[in-house]
């Protein structure tokens, strides 16, 4: 029980460490694609404690899972007209005890928007690929 409480305390201490580096606009402007085009770095990190990682009624196994998700965001366009973004993030999950469940999963998202707030016709399109995987008992 003491070990579970220690892991839970660690989870609460570290869980607030999410970072998004693109809050103030692009970090690296891309010349030739407009003044608002640029690349931004993304980073998210978390720690979670799960008391039944395999969702199994018998033989429950608990673990602490560290997740880090670095990525890059390309954005271009003018807020009043057309905008486009392409986002790539790699999600890494590291299990403290059940290391066979460690994984790296890819996420790619594309969004396009056209039209300003007062326009009669506004268009928004989004597409993405998200690689998902759950822990499986071995």
Describe this structure in words.
The protein has 138 residues and is mainly beta. It has one domain. The chain is built from one helix and six strands; from the N terminus they run αββββββ. It has a six-stranded antiparallel β-sheet. Mean pLDDT is 81; it is low at 4-23. Keywords: Signal. Residues 1-23 form the signal peptide. It comes from Candidatus Spyradosoma merdigallinarum. This is Porin.
Cα separation of the termini? 25 Å
Number of domains: 1
Q: Which blocks of ≥5 consecutive residues have pLDDT under 50? A: 4-23
Q: Describe the biggest sheet?
A: 6 strands, antiparallel
Oligomer: single chain
Mean of residue pLDDT?
81
Number of helices: 1
The helix content, as a percent range, equals under 10%
State the shape.
elongated
Organism: Candidatus Spyradosoma merdigallinarum
Keywords: Signal
Protein name: Porin
């Amino acid at each position: 029980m003491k070990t579970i409480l220690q892991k839970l305390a660690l989870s609460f201490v570290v869980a607030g460490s999410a970072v998004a580096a693109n809050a103030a606009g692009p970090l690296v402007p891309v010349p030739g694609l407009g003044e608002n085009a640029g690349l931004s770095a993304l980073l998210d990190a978390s720690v979670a404690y799960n008391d039944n990682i395999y969702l199994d009624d018998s033989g429950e196994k608990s673990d602490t899972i560290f997740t880090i998700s670095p990525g890059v965001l390309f954005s271009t366009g003018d807020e009043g007209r057309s905008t486009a973004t392409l986002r790539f993030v790699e999600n890494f999950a590291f299990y403290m005890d059940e290391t066979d469940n460690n994984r790296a999963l890819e996420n790619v998202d594309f969004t396009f928007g056209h039209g300003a707030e007062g326009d009669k016709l506004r268009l928004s399109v989004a597409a993405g690929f998200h690689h998902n995987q759950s822990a499986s008992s071995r």
